[in-house]
Design a protein that fits this description.
alpha+beta; single chain; Helix-turn-helix domain-containing protein; 5-stranded antiparallel sheet; MLTR_LBD; Cro/C1-type_HTH; 12 helices; 278 residues; Lambda_DNA-bd_dom_sf
């Protein structure tokens, strides 16, 4: 089993200078909660919540975490809120290269290997590729080599005019799917790097093809990724695995994206090209 690229990529935790009350209000507004609704969810009085937001009352550590949980605040941002409230961070932020993360790296390797002969990648929250299995080159075949050096962003690689885009038969539909998904990520995380990435991706050509356009029916369950290949079109449906019980920020921000065959021909082709791992 081969994994490549920078498995040690690590995004350091950013501790801001804004007050806890300001951060709490920003997340509350972002999640479209009124003070009353959040107070009811967290089982506290609206008056007390108002005092916490205004800085007139200091929350306990338990209350910080309770409010953050109800607002679905990412673990790294929960640490930031704790520090702003005067408490130590609750969640570790160790990179995958740390000695005590060996077991995690092995788990991810096994997960990627388990998807073979189908392509699968491990990605961080910014969509940087951390690792991949041996079947991924069927997706990246023919892309500009400069897009595969350094920290490789999977979404940039997909929609860049010198990336996968020229091979994507249903580029307008797939591009729309990616932009919607990235917009959803931004809604959840408010990550500025993702906002910048979205603007970059929007600037790329959308793609229009007179032939080979895929028609979608109401009964279809997902938008496929349809790629041109010398031996025929390959059709994939993507599936995402996240680590929902993670208490380490690195793992919580990670996902595994697998591309499963959407038709029999694609499945047969991949089985012929890539033997499953022993």
């Amino acid at each position: 089993m081969e994994t490549t690229l920078d498995f040690g990529h690590h995004r350091p935790m950013e501790i801001g200078t804004s007050s806890f009350g300001m951060q709490l209000r920003q997340w509350r507004v972002r999640r479209r909660f009124t003070q009353l609704a959040l107070a009811l969810e967290a089982d506290i009085s609206q008056r007390h919540l108002s005092f916490v937001e205004s800085g007139r009352s200091k929350p306990s550590r338990e209350m910080v975490l309770r409010l953050a949980e109800h607002l679905r605040v990412p673990l790294g941002e929960q640490n930031r809120m704790l520090v702003a409230a005067g408490y130590a961070p609750a969640y570790g932020d160790r990179p995958l290269t740390s000695p005590d993360m060996v077991g995690t790296r092995e788990m991810i390797d096994r997960l990627l290997a388990g998807y073979q002969p189908y392509p699968a990648l491990a990605l961080d929250r910014s969509w940087t590729i951390l690792a991949m299995n041996k079947a991924v080159p069927v997706l990246t075949e023919g892309v500009d080599p400069t897009l595969l050096t350094g920290q490789v962003n999977a979404l940039r690689l997909t929609l860049h005019p010198q990336g996968l885009a020229p091979r994507i038969v249903n580029l307008p539909a797939w591009r729309s799917h990616i932009l919607r998904r990235l917009s959803h990520d931004i809604e959840l995380s408010a990550d500025q790097s993702l906002i910048d990435l979205l603007e970059e991706l929007k600037s790329y050509p959308g793609g229009h093809r007179a032939a080979g356009r895929v028609a979608y029916q109401p009964s279809d369950i997902a938008v496929p990724l349809v790629l041109d290949h010398p031996r025929g079109q390959l059709s994939f449906i993507s599936a995402t695995t996240i680590f929902g019980t993670a208490v380490n920020i690195t793992l919580a921000d990670m996902m595994v994206e697998a591309f499963l065959p959407a038709d029999g021909w694609t499945a047969e082709f991949l089985r012929g090209e890539f033997d499953p791992v022993d």
